[in-house]
Amino acid sequence: MAKTTTSPVRTGLVHLALITYTLIALFPVFLTVINSFKDRASIFRDPLGLPTPSVFSLVGYETVLKQGDFTLYFQNSFIVTAVSIFFVLLFGAMAAFALSEYRFRGNTLMGLYLALGIMIPIRLGTVAILQGMVAAGLVNTLTALILVYTAQGLPLAVFILTEFMQTVSDDLKNAGRIDGLSEYSIFFRLVLPLIRPAMATVAVFTMIPIWNDLWFPLILAPSDATKTITLGSQVFIGQFVTNWNAVLAALTLAIVPVLVLYLIFSRQLIRGITAGAVK
Length: 279
Known about the structure:
It is a multi-pass membrane protein. It is found in: Cell membrane. Keywords: Cell membrane, Membrane, Transmembrane, Transmembrane helix, Transport. Its main location: membrane. The chain crosses the membrane at residues 12-34, 78-99, 111-130, 142-165, 186-211, 246-265. This protein has helices at 8-35, 40-45, 59-67, 70-101, 107-119, 126-136, 142-165, 170-178, 183-194, 196-212, 215-220, 229-239, 244-278. By secondary structure, it is mostly helical. Helix 1 (8-35) runs antiparallel to helix 13 (244-278) and helix 4 runs parallel beside helix 7.
């Protein structure tokens, strides 16, 4: 069997393209972060310069923390994101296990039906969702956002996890059944530990749209007590549009958690993506 060889020139061009894309993607983040630690004059005088001791200033963060109630916004975003990801992973993994493990009438049709959720944006049902939340008395509650985001993330979770669960050895699961394990024990103790990279991939792909979303918080939970960090940032920026220190500090506070999460789960994320590509 002939081995395929990759041209060094082609490899270099691919790496160059990836490095260029990475620099373009990170440049706005870098610019936002460094300028959030400068005084107002230095932001306009030297926007690309690093914050030296002579221009270093935390006035933007002080303004945000004192007047923007960002602690509450961050807490709301964290609760909504964490709970939504938990339910997406739990229910998505259970549904994926059922679709991949058991053969029943309508199995394929059920998988295709769930896949439609990936192709049809949930925002098309905004009016119906709002009417349902009003009828249930869930407007201006974090529960409304959690329910919507769980429904939004489930189709992709089921689609990804089903493919990975089909690679888990049947012999392993049958051995567990012979040892007397219940189906729940097989799911939680045998299957889930083997698909952790896929779970991390789903968690990251689910977390980013939830954390960055402005649409549903603005419609379902616009009150001061339920604002998320993204909605709070937008309102703050609109209120202090001329105060660039506060604007950049608010954007930095909204960006940092996503970057931290990626750094924590990057290894698992890459493993999950590459495993899916190889498979």
